Amino acid sequence: MDIDSLQAQVKNDLEKVSSPEALEEVRVKYLGRKGVVAELTGSIPGIPVQERGEFGRKVNAFKSGLHELFAKKEESLKDGEALRGENIIDIGMPGIAQQVGTLHPLTRITDEICSVFSRMGFSVAEGPEVETEYNNFTGLNIPLEHPSREAFDTFYLKDYDKKLLRSHTSPAQVRIMQEKKPPLAVVVPGRVYRPDAVDASHSFMFHQIEGLMVGEGIKFSDLKGVLETFAKAIFGEGIKMRFRPHFFPFTEPSAEVDISCIICGGKGCSVCGRKGWLEILGSGMVHPNVFKHVAIDADKYSGFAFGMGVERIAMLKYGINDIRLFFENDLRFLRQF
Ligand code: PHE
User: Fold this and answer.
1) Are residue 216 and residue 312 in the same domain, yes or no?
2) Which of 169, 170, 308 to mutate to test the pocket of ligand 1 (most atoms within 8 A of CB)?
């Protein structure tokens, strides 16, 4: 038998092997007791003496070549098995689920409130948290001697000439009216700062949403209609509202707005302090002195403004009893939203 063609035959046989069992069959065929190699070895005595040495060497080389080929094939079978086995990525296995984040309740309520106002034609703007004393106070008709101007009511920035952390979002009114002329309607959400001791209902930082509408013939009834639409959209159609006379230096007349208690419906409970009403915001008609500061003609234009505490609205809407929960990053709280 021609050893060269045997060599080709082995390769051919091995190519078809895809399991350890099939490999064993091929091994037996060549290296078994009655296999090809045994047959070759058995044929040596019949070879003419002068060719015997040459033939024997060829048989030996063939034999050790076979060992090598089988070993290689065994390896590659193992690799293939590993690919299908536990050691390697199982693309059919379910992945490790990633936690999907949720919006912070304050972000959620802010978005909700702003979208109610944008449906009524308001645009949404933002202002800086570091403000000038002028925008936070003077431009808003808050005179020098007004108590809220005193340092203990406001965080002033050290070595930062008359700059402060805004104590309300109302300075945005000044910025808006400096930039744009009426008619305009804008809401401004953002952080505000006051040096209050932290407790269940106070925080040195909280959020407000300012609203401002200025145009020809804007009346107090427009303010009422806009705020009623807002309150019903956020707290439900059944909610009642009332306007209580109040004082703000930058609006005249001014009013604080209450909604009927969402817990007891107005009968009186511990949440509303037995009053049946909950205060939700401050508002009023833009004071002529504020118009004067931004060079808007108060004889031609009128407008209203309001400012609400976002935490307060969220606490009422979601039944949260401690403002600190918003800022502690406790996932047990945040995951509920
Ligand atoms: N800026 C006021 C406050 O923080 C609220 C307010 C805004 C009142 C606009 C009237 C008009 O208390």
Assistant:
1) yes
2) 170
